[in-house]
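Table S2 (text version). Query chain:
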Amino acid sequence: MKKLLLSLAASTALATPAFAELLELEKDELTFGFIKLTDMAPLAVAYEQGYFLDEGLFVTLEAQANWKVLLDGVIDGQLDGAHMLAGQPLAATIGYGTEAHIITPFSMDLNGNGITVSNEIWEEMKPNIPKMEDGRPQHPISAEALAPVVEKYKSEGKPFNMGMVFPVSTHNYELRYWLAAGGLHPGYYSPENVTGQIGADVFLSVTPPPQMPATLEAGTIYGYCVGEPWNQQAVFKGIGVPVITDYELWKNNPEKVFGITAEFAEEYPNTTLAVTKALIRAAQWLDENDNANRPEAVEILSRAEYVGADYDVIANSMTGTFEYEKGDKRDVPDFNVFFRYNATYPFYSDAIWYLTQMRRWGQIAEAKPDSWYDDVAKSVYKPEIYLEAARLLVDEGLANEADFPWNSDGYKAPTPAEDIIDGIAYDGRAPNAYLESLTIGLKGEQKIVGSDVQG
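Corresponding structure-token output:
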């Protein structure tokens, strides 16, 4: 694994702007982990643009083999922090899987994922998809178009297998959401059976992001949900077709976070603020001037030490477009959002959506009151740290006052029904009412006993 090492102190005085007041850092040499996905961009940009150095931080960035290795590295202290799945700090804190109190002061991005199927499955889906006047498929594409294909495979005794990147990943929940919105059951978890395949029409399993295209090509899975550039890679290789982006699934949905242990934040509060400042500046740079810096960001990400995919593959989505079938490239300017729409603010309502999905599919086995969701969200998502870092940037002339939600109570306005694929609005203040509104999934006092839903 190639390490990125910052040059030592001689350059520090030159790199530090005269107008920035350095915090008194408790720790200035840090190692952060990431997975090879385009949404690790704030870390790469904070490094390459010198924002970490501006804060007096000497940072090493290390690619990790998979999400579990990454989380374990943060928990055991080999990593000081990491680019994480938003579900990871929440799951760890409530003790689902590995138990540890992980927090996030910074949300890394919105959107950025897609669902891709193999060419064979796409051909079987196409007759079920409405067409536009020019003959191209009408988007967004519902999983209703996939349902007859799954039924055919079931009648032939073939399991319909799809991949996602981790049991508590956005990708798992987005794929499940899309399938359920189209009437397909993605299966339940129970304390005794953590496969997530109880009662499933479609069988989901874990595949690391960079391995998705090869696993699809091998026929082990028929489709997958993953972040970029691994959907566009399938298009470039001619092995698959993305059928929907998560922007179409749920407009401006939250994606990754930057995760650290609660102990780290407590022991190194100024260091935590400094890191958050650097990441906010990176996010601003990524989105400023209508994405004018994106080509430079793509060049950075294409390097082997970061994502390591071809420039053109990464640029296909990172610069405001998305290619579905080969040649069917459409404008999706908000496919990757790093700063607009308060993307970097860690909203409690985002955390609660993940918790509702854990409950919906049985990862949270028992019913919880609304107050429990609020308490967990507040124990993990830390907007107070974020806003303190933002205030320092504003005072230093490095950010605009108007760009931050100073008076937020931590909850977004409800996501309207028209912004979500199944037409069901989401209000983070009422998680149980939201669960009740979803046709497929656990609600109320229901729980999984054996292979049955009871209650």
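Notes on Table S2: Residues 1-18 have pLDDT under 50 and may be disordered. The two ends are 49 Å apart (CA to CA).
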